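Justification of computing resources. Each target in the renewal requires a structure prediction run like the one illustrated here; the chain below, 494 residues long, is used simply to show the kind of job we budget for.
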Amino acid sequence: MSNIFNWSRRMLWAVCIASFAVTLWVRFDLVARHVQDIGSAEDNMMHGFQRILLGQPLYGDPEAPPFPIIQYAPLQYYSVALIAKVLGFGAYDVQPIYMISRVFCLLCDLVACWVLFRICRKLKMPPLAGFGAVVLLFTWLHELYWSRPDSPFLLFFLLHVEAMLSLLGDPSRASTWKRVAWPAFTGAMCLFAKQSGLEIPLIDAVVLVMARQWRTLFHSAAQFYAWGIVFCIIIQLESGLPNAYKNLVLGNANGTDYAMFMDSWKSPFFLVGAGWTIAALVCARWLPRQEQPMISRYLFFGSLIALAWALITGSKRGSNANYFLEHYVFCWLVCGFALSSIDRAAITVRILAALLGTTVALRALLFWWGLMHHDYRPDDPVAYNEAKELRGQLIAHGLKQGDWIWFTRDCFGEQFLAEHVLLQERIIYMLCGSDLPLDHSEFERMLARGDVRYVIKRPPKLFFVNDDTPPATFTERFRVGAYTVYEFTGATAH
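Resulting structure tokens:
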């Protein structure tokens, strides 16, 4: 029996190492590819980067031309734009900006994996369990983590968990401003990275209130809100808080979509992780409540609150099953911490080891399945070069400062003409309709008045648009590759 167990351990090590290596290779390979919008998740990021590099505020007025909506908190926008400036790139160095964003997220993900391994070792988990958790995390990071704020949020989330475990590991020590400084900062940075960071102070507050740690709660809350004020001042100076509110709050008021919510329950992302939810509930009985009551409480209630948060926020239109990731991280830590305190030869440990190996293998297979069946994989330098040529042709035809352009779909052309593009986040407006509490009716009037000089089509049309034909007052002027350029003439085209 011991030989079988040892062989299984070696196989699990091999599966984990292979899965991590293959996933890392794929992430590196995607960095330099000419893909306009990885997994339908990257376009909004490029819009924000280019606004900053063009000298515009990140958060503009979404109800006035060019009707910009930036849906995410500013950390990644500021960071990538700053790196691009330091490296000497401008707003129209499109591919370098894509690459900087993808490398930035990859580095955040790798550091997050390292922090998770440190947490596992701090909880006395064996090296295989810690590395298995790292591989689970890394293979779980699908395309929404490849160039979006989910990556820096994940990094600061794990840094915060590590900081809280250190803070709660010795509750006999008196709380001081210095002791809670790092947990408060990492918690605030979660919110500065992504609005989902609101769950972090909620988890902390519940655990500290249950433990009656009033002094720690006061110190943490005061410093958290102090950092919040600092971040508000930064946003006010850069964009203005009223516009930030319109983008970050009203721009995310997409309405509810319970069909999408139910689909997330059937997604491979959720189904592969459901076993860990059950495992965490089972393993919670072995948490060392006597030896480490605060840590046990933090991990267990963290998993429950993160699950509730994912279920509530998952009903918003446009949500994705990646909302469950923080819950799964807590589940892995609950299982590892509980089982590190009991006999490692117990049958439960072997069952969890089998679950770990099975989940890692399934995640690796699903990762490859996603690459084979989705459109974010192919390199398309032809489309990229056509967009560059389109910009040159429009300038040659007299495009000048202040001329507005509307593209009928998202494409590289928008990035090469960013300062001229209206309604770049058309998908948000079109999918959400009247549920979105923002008025963009002025756009229709601009089309009718001729304030929009060009309408540019590029196939295929968006799946939710029945007809992408420009208004009759626009006449076809020229074509560049797949792009057809129409100019306002004021006369009905025949």
